[in-house]
Each structure stands twice: as structure tokens, then as C-alpha cells.
From TrEMBL:
The protein, known as: Flavoprotein oxidoreductase
Cofactors (names): FAD
Domain Pyridine nucleotide-disulphide oxidoreductase dimerisation intervals: 336-438
Coiled coil spans: none
FAD/NAD(P)-binding domain segment(s): 4-301
This protein's UniProt keywords: FAD, Flavoprotein, Oxidoreductase, Redox-active center
Species of the source: Streptomyces corynorhini
GO MF annotation, one: oxidoreductase activity
UniProt keyword Nuclease present: no
Lineage, broadest ranks: Bacteria, Bacillati, Actinomycetota, Actinomycetes, Kitasatosporales
Similarity-based family: Belongs to the class-III pyridine nucleotide-disulfide oxidoreductase family.
Amino acid sequence: MAERMVVVGGDAAGMAAASQARRERGPRELEIVAFERGHFTSYSACGIPYWVSGDVAERDALIARTPQEHRERAIDLRMRTEVVELDVPGRRVRSRDLSDGSESWTGYDKLVLATGARPVRPALPGIDAPGVHGVQTLDDGQDLLESLAGTEGGRAVVVGAGYIGVEMAEALLKRGYEVTVVHRGEQPMSTLDPDMGRLVHEAMDGMGITTVGGAAVTGIRTGADGRARAVLTEDAEYPADVVVLGIGVEPETTLAAAAGLPLGAHGGLLTDLALRVRGHADIWAGGDCVEVLDLVSGAQRHIALGTHANKHGQIIGANAGGGYATFPGVVGTAVSKVCELEIARTGLRERDARRAGLRYVTATIESTNSAGYYPGAAPMTVKMLAEHRTGRLLGVQIVGREGAAKRVDIAAVALTAGMTVERMTTLDLGYAPPFSPVWDPVLVAARKAVTAVRAAGV
């Protein structure tokens, strides 16, 4: 008799796990049942801002694999069906069909939790009013586009200035909106140190985006029709025809918590290197609902990225299907853009290093994305953190124009390898005038960091 694997969640991690498990074992050996409460599977939520902006013409371009395609691979995928309870001792899940409300229990031999993350939506007056939108799912994107269709060229307020916030600011600017970004931080992009975030702020202002920092939102003012009309802070009011929330996300672990599964300080599920939930040999978890090991600081982190979710799914599917794979951790690499400005970071910020008890030095340099004499050479700023005395690379942040963001991958590899900044200066990187100065900006920063380490002494 075939074993049964139940997957809760039909996006990146869940369906990657189901697909990989099916490659490992055929239908006669392993039955796979997957539950997804939404209308879509295996799609790129990261692409929603570019769909909203019009850079991506159609919603379906963001879908990697449809429900029917999964079913053709012998995966029993049940759409618009929400798992509402985990019975771990009984090895079963209770699901509800959202079309008719009927409920049923499904037993499992192996359970995969890929419940993702939920947008942070503070309990503020007017936060659920028409015209206030999140951008977590394709349904959210469709709702936002329909809202924009009725307010074309009006005023938009984005709440939050992280990755989603700045990407949505760009999308709305491209659609002809007057855009204001309201956020609580000292500078936009709190994933950067404030000195690097200031560069983002200056660039956004230059693009015509009004950026208001240090502003805590207290509510949404609505009109007589109940629709959002303004975003309120303690000191001001920002008129809006549409409001987009980009405050961030948190792990969706409501089911796991109710079932008594172990959660970390950030609310995410805790797993071992094979992505098994700690203390449960036949339950795996991956994607935005788990915490991961930071290879630089040694701490647990919650990082919601599709890159990690897909890797998690592959590893879970291999293990649940009888193979073997592990996920060692992350270094915290992320890239984004707002119009022509590219933003990247990997490793630790200064406050992360302090929190981890690390002594460090910093080095910041200004360079260009190509040889200075090459037509179109554009500025780039690179900031590097290195450990005091040892010179071990701790983190890199980059803000610049075309060709800036993906340079962070050099640093990501160096961090994963545990390299020192001195060792980095000898890296054999590609060079030609259209692509880089003779000394790549990352290596220039490494050279300056070496000098800072030596100057700091013992």
C-alpha cells in the first residue's frame, strides 16, 4: 500500500516539495495530496509589482505551473481548500472546501507545512477600508489593478519603505500616480544601514517620489462612501486615492502553533538541517513559514524570499521521497530596485553585528559600474563590514545604477566561504571596460576594508 504525503500550501515550497517527491517515488509508492486555499499555484509573488507597473503584461506570466499541470504529474491538488486543523497525534489534517464549506479529515504518513507568510496589517482605524491594498498574492494584485482602474493618475500613498514598499512606489509612479511613501524608519530600506538608506532616499526624491520618514501611521481616513481618502500620522495627513501596504510579512504559523509545533523567536517553525520540524520525524516545513540559520551571525532569522522557498521545497521533497538533502543556512542576500536605482545587501548590517556581539570596521567607497571613460558609466556606492582583528567579511551593501545590484553575489559567495577581506582582494573577477573598472568596486571596498582592519590593530 502506498504511503501518503500531505502538503499544506500550494505555492513555491509546497509544490516544489510535491514535485521533487514525485520524482523520487512513483504514484504506486507515494500518494501526494496538496491543499491550496487560493486560486493559483506555483506563482511569483515577487513579480506582482512589475505586473502592476505594466512591465509584465499579463498575470499568467507569473505562474510557473498551473494546478492542471501538477495534477498531470499525479499530484492530487485540491484548490480553494483550506487546512484548518492539524491533528499531529492522529496523523491527519482537517480541511474545509471554501466553495461549499464542507469539511473532511485526511490522514498522512508524511506531512509538509508550506503555509507561507502573511502581510503585517496593524489594527488601525480604516485599515480594511476599500482602496487599502496588500500585495502578497495574485488575488491581491488583481484587486489592486481593479482599484487603480478607477483612480488612474491620482494620488497614491505607500505605507512602508522596505522591498515591497519601494517596488510598489516605482510601479505606481510608472502608472502616473503622485506617490508618497510613509515609513517609521530613519531612512527607507531598513535592510540597509542608515547611511546607505540615505542614498536611496535622495534618489527617490529625485524621481519625484515624496518620502516621509519617522512617521508612524495612526489610521486611514475614509470618505462618505467608506473608501480610503488619506493616510494619517501623528503629525500630518496624506491624501490618497489608493493606499498600498508594504509593511512586511510574518510567518503564517497559526496552524502549527495550535498543534504545539516548535516556533522560534520570530514566530517561524524550527527545523533541523533536513528541514524536518524539530522533534517530529515525519513532518517537514519550508518557505516563508520557517526560520533559517544565519551563517554569518549564527542566529536564527526569518527571511521571506522565493529563492529560499524553492530550495526548501527541493530538499523537503528529496527527503520525504526517500532521498537525502540538507539546507545549511543563508547569508541574507537580497536585491531590489526603484526605477533606475539598484539596491543590494548581504550579510550583516552594523546593528546586526553589534547584536551578535561582533567587533567590526567599515569601509565605504564610491566607484562606477564600468570604466570611468566608458560611455554611460554610472556611480555606485559600496559599503563593507569586516570583523575586527580577523578581517572576516561580515556584510556588504550596494546602491547604484545598472550593474550594481548583482555585484552583491560576489560578496554572498565570499561570505558563504568565510573569506577575509584580504583574501577577497585577490579574487579573479571578470574585467572589460563596458562591465567594470580595472578594479571592481567590490574589490576596491575590500582593499579599503583591509586598511581599516590593519589600522584598528588589536
